[in-house]
C-alpha cells in the first residue's frame, strides 16, 4: 500500500500539492524528521501533537493515507482475501467510500457485509487493481477539482496616502464620477457577485456602496495585515486582493487573473516583464497562503511580495505594463489623468 500511495502522490503532485501519510507497526522513531533537498532535519524532542500535524497539513491540497494505520475523510477500499478479516474489523472507518479495488483480478464480488453497509449510499466505483490507476486517479482528480475554495475579493483602501495627500481610494479619474474604490468594487462585483469586501484602517470608515468593511485587525502591518485580516475573517476562502492605486487597471486584467487562477499554488499573481518579482497587490491568495503569511509576519517580514517570491506561485508575465501604473503622488495622478483624456 505504501508503494502505491507514493506512486499516486507523484501523479497528483503536478497539479495538487499532495501529502502521504503512511506508518508501520514498529516502535516509534526517537524524534521527528523532515528533509528538503539534501538537508535533513531531526530532533529528539517530544511534544508533537495533533495541532502540530494540522499546521503541517495546511500546506497541502490533499493527503493520501494508509488506512491500515490511520483514518481519512474519504476511503478507497482494497479487497484482498488475505486481509479480509482486517478489512471487516475496520468497517466503522468506511464512512465515505469513493472506490472499491479488487486485488484478486479473478474475483469481482464485493463482500456481502460491505455491500450491505453501502446499500443506502451512492454506489462507489468498482475496479480491479490493474485498472485502478486509470480509473481511481481520475476520480481523485475530479474530487479535488470540485473542492476549489470559494473566491472572495478584498479592495485595499486603508493606506495612509501620505505622498498623495488624500485618500487614493476616494480619487476620481473618470467622467462617471466613481471613486477608485467604487470602480474596482463594481468590476469585481460583476465578475464575482457577492464577493466584495473593503479593507479599511478603522471600523468607522464610511462604506463603499453596500459592500462590507473589513477593519484591519493587524494595525501597522500595511497590506500584509489587511490580507491576514481577510483570512482571519474566512480562512477557508481564497482572496482576490486589489490595490486602489492602479487607476488604469481594468476589468480585462482582473478577469484574466481569475481565469488563470491556479488553486493548487499558494497564489496567482501578475509579474511585469520589466521586473523580477510578482505583483502582490493584484493577486489571488489561496487559503494555504494564510499560515505562510503569518509565519513571515512572525519573522518580522510584513511584505507580501517577499511571501510570494519565496513560495510556490503561478506568475502571469505581462508585456503591456500600462494597466499596472501606480498613482501614489499628485504628479503621478496628473500623468494618469492625461492618459485617460
UniProtKB/TrEMBL annotation:
InterPro entries (UniProt xref): MobA-like_NTP_Trfase, Molybde_CF_guanTrfase, Nucleotide-diphossugar_trans
Highest taxon of source: Bacteria
Gene Ontology molecular function, alphabetical: GTP binding; metal ion binding; nucleotidyltransferase activity
A Pfam family hit: NTP_transf_3
GO biological process: Mo-molybdopterin cofactor biosynthetic process
Keyword GTP-binding included in the entry's annotation: yes
SUPFAM superfamilies tied to this protein: Nucleotide-diphospho-sugar transferases
Record keywords: Cytoplasm, GTP-binding, Magnesium, Metal-binding, Molybdenum cofactor biosynthesis, Nucleotide-binding, Transferase
Signal peptide extent: none
Domain MobA-like NTP transferase: 154-298
Stated name of the protein: Molybdopterin-guanine dinucleotide biosynthesis protein MobA
